[in-house]
Write a structure and sequence with these properties.
A two-stranded parallel ribbon has the order 1-2. The protein has a domain of 58 residues. It is mainly α. Helix 2 crosses helix 3. The protein has 5 helices and 2 strands; from the N terminus they run αβαααβα. The two termini are 14 Å apart. It is globular.
Length: 93
Amino acid sequence: MGPPGCARREIAVTIAEFQARWVYISVGDLLRAQIEEGTQYSDRIDKSFAAFTYVDDDIVIELVKRAIDDAEHDKNSWIVEGFPRTLAQVMVL
């Protein structure tokens, strides 16, 4: 957590690299991957990016949940950057 420009991403990546068996999860990377892969969510994500608005909570929550489940399945800890950003995401977390 921190204000804009405080290098949150760099700090999260450094922590994940420093700690053995930690996975760095970036919401932005997850969303961009959906667009590149042309998944069921790609159109909705692309429209949100074009309008400079938050991507719908249901999409973000599903993608983060999957990434966390994958990390925990492999017995890894995780650190998430870019989540939560809305009240709905806070409540799920």
